Structure formats: C-alpha cells, structure tokens
Amino acid sequence: MGVVETTKQRTARKAKPVAVPKEALPLGQILSGDCIEAMRSLPDASVDLVFADPPYNLQLGGDLNRPDGSHVDAVTNDWDQFDSFKIYDDFTRNWLTEAKRILKPDGALWVIGSYHNIYRVGAILQDLGFWILNDIVWRKTNPMPNFRGTRFTNAHETLLWASQGEKAKYQFNYNAMKTLNDELQMRSDWVIPICNGGERLKENGQKAHPTQKPEALLYRVLLATTEKGDVVVDPFFGTGTTGAVAKRLGREWIGCEREDFYRGVAQKRIDKELPLDESALKIMQSKRAAPKVAFGALVEAGFLKPGTEVFDKKRRWVATVRADGSLECGKQTGSIHGLGKDLQGAPSCNGWTFWHYEDEGVVKQLDAARQLYLLAVED
Amino acid sequence: MGVVETTKQRTARKAKPVAVPKEALPLGQILSGDCIEAMRSLPDASVDLVFADPPYNLQLGGDLNRPDGSHVDAVTNDWDQFDSFKIYDDFTRNWLTEAKRILKPDGALWVIGSYHNIYRVGAILQDLGFWILNDIVWRKTNPMPNFRGTRFTNAHETLLWASQGEKAKYQFNYNAMKTLNDELQMRSDWVIPICNGGERLKENGQKAHPTQKPEALLYRVLLATTEKGDVVVDPFFGTGTTGAVAKRLGREWIGCEREDFYRGVAQKRIDKELPLDESALKIMQSKRAAPKVAFGALVEAGFLKPGTEVFDKKRRWVATVRADGSLECGKQTGSIHGLGKDLQGAPSCNGWTFWHYEDEGVVKQLDAARQLYLLAVED
DNA sequence: TAAGTTTGTGAATCTCATA
DNA sequence: ATATGAGATTCACAAACTT
What we know:
Mean pLDDT of chain A: 89
Oligomer: homodimer
Catalytic activity (chains A, B): a 2'-deoxyadenosine in DNA + S-adenosyl-L-methionine = an N(6)-methyl-2'-deoxyadenosine in DNA + S-adenosyl-L-homocysteine + H(+)
Pfam families (chains A, B): N6_N4_Mtase (PF01555), RAMA (PF18755)
Structural class of chain A: alpha/beta
Radius of gyration of chain A: 25 Å
CATH architecture of the largest domain in chain A: 3-Layer(aba) Sandwich
Low-confidence stretches of chain A: 7-15, 278-290
Largest sheet of chain A: 8 strands, mixed
Largest interface: A-B, 80 and 83 residues
Distance between the termini of chain A: 30 Å
Keywords (chains A, B): DNA replication, DNA-binding, Methyltransferase, S-adenosyl-L-methionine, Transferase
Number of helices of chain A: 13
Number of domains of chain A: 2
Protein name (chains A, B): Methyltransferase
CATH superfamily of the largest domain in chain A: Vaccinia Virus protein VP39
CATH class of the largest domain in chain A: Alpha Beta
CATH topology of the largest domain in chain A: Rossmann fold
Strand order of the largest sheet of chain A: 2-12-11-3-4-6-5-8
GO molecular function (chains A, B): DNA binding; N-methyltransferase activity; site-specific DNA-methyltransferase (adenine-specific) activity
C-alpha cells in the first residue's frame, strides 16, 4: 500500500496506464437514470474518487411522535425500500463493482452509512477487493434524540475510506488534515453538526431532500483525499452536496441521480456555487470538542468508587455514590446536581462544588476528582 | 421488539419457557479450550448476555480447512485474501451461532471490533437473525498516533449491540445511562481512555495481553444492558475484564479461554476483585419500573378531591375532577390521559405531567400528587 | 434594537400489559 | 394472534416571535 501527496508523484502515477483524457468524461454533469447504468457509460480507470451516499435501507415501523406529540418526519421514500438483505446486497455489489471499474488504480472510494446498511456495504467492498484504509465516525453535535428511551441516542454515522487494493496507492493530504486540526493528526472521529439552518435546501418551505449531508463533511473528504483538478464521481447525487463542494474546491465532478426533482435542485445549487476564497476556508474549520465530563464517567473509570460517601461543606447532608453515578440520600436519589438542588430546595445546584469526599483524610470537592480525571484522560 | 427495565417484568419473563436453573451453569468458571466447543457445553436459552471481543488477526490455531476441504496452514499465512475472509467468516458464523443458541430469547449480544473485522461480524450477525440495536463508537481519548502519517489516526473501535431478533425483548437501563451521563440521554459515542497505567495487567514487566480492554467500557455495557444476578458469557475471555467487572457489579459470569497463560492471569485478577455493596449497586429506576398508580386511586384516597380544578400549563383548558377519577371539560370527558389527548388533538398525552392543580397557592403537576401518594403507600 | 421566549425539527430500524 | 388503552418519552440549534 502507499500514499501519494505531491503533485509530482501524482503526475508520474497518472502517466503509467493509457490515461483517459478528461475531455472524454461528462465533467460537471448530472447523469440521469439508474447509477449503475450511468456509471457503465464511463470508461475504465478514469476517475480519482467515488463518494457514495447510498440508501440506508432503514426498516421503520409505524409512526413516531416526539414527547410533545409532534410527528417525526421520517425517511419513507421509495428509494430507501428494499425487500430483503439479499436484494440490498445485490444492489450494493452491483454499484460497487461499477465504482471499482471506473476508478483509477490509485483512486479511492468513500461510502457513508449507518448501522442499518454499513456492515453489508463494508463486507461486500472487502469481498470485491477494496482495501479499507480507515473507518471514520461522523459524530453529530446535534443528533435526533431517542424519543422513547429505548436505546442509546443514535449520534453518529460511519464513513468507509478504501483503496483499490492492499498494495494500491492512494492520495492522502496528511499535512492539510493536520493543519485543519490545529496541528494535531486528524483522528478517525469527526465532530460535525448535521445539515440544517441556511445550508439546508428547501423547496416551498419543505426540505428538498430528507438526507442532505453537511458540506463540512464533503469538504473534509475532498480536502483529505483529492487534489485540485481530480475527478470525483457521486453515484447518489441527491441535492448535489458533493458537486457543490467539489466546485468550490476546484475539483471536477460527475453526478448520477435518478429523480428529476433532485437533479433540478442540485443543478440550481451548483450553478450558484463560487470557488473557494480564504474567508470561507476559515469558516469551515471545525472546532475541537469541549472536554465536558459526566460524573458517571469518573465512577466508571474508578476515580470514585460506588459506595463512597459524599457530603456538603457543612455536612448537613451525606449521600452515597451508586453504580450509575447517581447519589442516594435517605429515600431521595438523583444526579449530583439534581439531588443537591432538591435537598437545598434551591432552583439549581452545581454538584461539582456542592459535594465533597474524603481522600486519605483530606476533604476535597468533587471537582478535584474531575480535575484528576481530565489530567489522566488528556494523553 | 421491546425494552424491559423492571425486575418484576423480568421475573415474569424468565418464568415463561422451561427456565434453566442457574445451578446447572458453570458460573464463575473459565472454561478451557476452543470457545465454540466450550459454548456447546452450555444449555439452550440459558444466559442473559454474551460479550465478545473476538480476535482480528486470524490467530485461530490448530488446523484450518477451506470450505472445499483443502488444508490451510494458518501459521505460515498460506492463504490469499479471499481464503482469509472465507475462513474468518466461517469462524465468526460458528461462534455467533453458538452464542445465539445459548442466549435466552430476551438476551442480547455485544461484539467489539475494529474496521479489520467488524464489517464481517456485523453482516454475519444480521444474517443469523440478530437485530442490531445500536452500533457504539468507543472514542479513545489517547489512541496510538499514526506514526507514518499515511492515514487518519485510528482513534476508535466499534461495538455492536444486538437482540435475538426484530421483535425480541431486551434489557436497557435507560435511566441508569441517563444518570451516568449527567441527565442527558447516553449517546452512541462513548469517550473512554484506553487501558493503561495501574489497570493494565503486567507479567514480568510485559503486557499480559495485547488488547486488554478498559474496565470502564465493560462497566458501561453491563450497567446498561444487564441487571443484578444476570449471567454474562465472554467467549474470548483473555485477562478476564468481563469477569472482573461482572463480579464487581454483582452479575454472574462464565468465560471461555484457550490459552493457559491468560486463564491464569484472569483467575488471579478476578479472585482479588470485590463485589460492590448492595446499596452502591442500585441504579436509577425507570418510571416504567415504578408501581402503576391509577388516578382514581388518588381521588379515592383523598389526595385530590372531586371537584378540584385542573388545567394545563398555559391554562388553555380547565377541567374538573369527578368522583371516579375522570375529568370533565365542558361537554368533553375522559381519563386524565384521554382528555388531554383529545383536547390537544395529539396522538397521545401523559396526563400526569399535562395537568396541573393548585395546592396552597402553588401550581403543581398531577405527578407531584402521585409522588406523595407513592410515599404514603410505601411501607 | 436588544434580549429573552416559544416553536419547529433532524437518516429513527423508538412500548407494554391486558383482553 | 390482534386490538386497545395506559402512560412513558427529547437534545441542540435556529428561526420566529414577544417584550
């Protein structure tokens, strides 16, 4: 396997096989119809990157309402309906096969998905000979909660990044990523908000597409694994986020999209897009996640053992730490903040400074344990 | 499908099929030999949870045969990539099949892996009928950097949590998780340090095991998806992190481990582990677990007099409590839930939190009266 | 205008006991 | 089996609205 970062190496690389001239490709066009058919119209080994956001094959039950009674607008589109894993797998194998064919030997593939489909996609692309370079976790800052309290909040999606094979070369702009990440190596978990607000495309007040991806995500993908002038194909173009970001970053793009409506929205969007300027670059840079600590994390990590007694400064109340990081004081229980609030009858309470514990005879605020934890956790 | 949180329901649930008495199981033992063989010695539908940390690197040991019967030399890596996946898949299917068999109908499975193997595992467990509930990202605070700068820092591993099937019940301690996370829903991305420092087991100054998992990870898994006394099986026991945390949390455990050395290390470790006190083990209960109270019972008991006026937060509607615990608002009548639902035109309504009443000049939710009633009725 | 409050919404495999 | 009714359940952010 290998990495290519300089334009020089890249040029040498491209000269090797019979290169397909870019002019032979439908650059800057949205091909209509089925993506497998559309990709068949492209020559072998002709593109640098495929970015794919295929249907996730969600299998939703009935309607879902929020606790306030409002209705959740779910993805119920026909294009996300498959009758079985077998049918979904066949579909996946077919489009991945075409993607592999049109990619140059040193090209790469990105696919985004959720737990509903990503394990099918990952296994199949490995079967086809793709070589996984990283799996990337898109950590959403603002995911939809789990309204019924039945599972963990589904707060991330997964991207797979793969080369043509174990020994294949690929483009990785290491230094660009390091710069983007405040001079630290870019990690496999990316903290990026979901696409809403002004960026979210609307038609007649309705969202134009149910699953529009944030531009920041595509920005990072293209900045990390393509260089200027590279050709990027998106087989599931939707509203054209890939095309818009590619145009902004000076990459060539080709989209495939079955639905007339989405093609129209995408075309309009990309026509308005302008090449990148410096100020835009700064805006796209992600902020580092704030080191917020839950009290429960300290208990899990053994910094405070369940059963430990904690008390307020004047020892008016004594409570016991339980396994889940809640406190128990007589019949009353709650979080460090909530129980402190209830006991005092106060409107709010900062449990970190309200509660104390004894450590080898010395009385300390809970906040002291939090500081120790943060020190231990930050490499 | 469904979630179970109360001990009461749980007991009823267990009584349904011919229950395997716990005494028939090798609780607190580390079974030697191949995990598939070891699991074969356990009865059907007998355990509550399987936690598995399978090998990624095909160190399967012993003789291996291709599906066509031809022999593969595992030690000299005498296979191509296709063989390698095939063999790994067969191995995975075999141990997952045994795991599924020994799990109770409402039991659950956890598997941890990295991008090398988790896509194989995920696809196969779906094929076997397991139903993925979440994929969880263990986000490492202190991962190994990518020294050569060729990829993104591989800063996470993935855990899959699955029930026996789409309609199967499963245990999820929602409120314990919410408490552990400072009163916010626990998300699918968990920030936990890697296992090092004093927790990392050493023998003669060397790491005892190359992939020892942090206890905080198992702590959260067991706290979230088991209750006290549940039986947890770990087919790839290693140095026994699962056993140690299970013992601490008052869960029963069974391990399988092929290597004598690891069995020795694990046994010594677990012998030293002490169970937590009863009180420390308690976790925040869900309201689902609380005894159900009929509104009519409050009225009967005089906690709310017939004729009392109740109203929603904004006083858009005012209703009168009737002797049978129903409400009347103009011509409309119904239960506290049903009337609230009808008046709002909402799909559902929790009358306990929707309706309010005045008690000595203070506005309170009906739920406050329920809490008073529960306190009075207990003991 | 500025500041505070209310409302809307996002790739979601989202209940359970009883009749 | 399937229908019914009780009742448990939400976080971050932005836009709209009010004071």
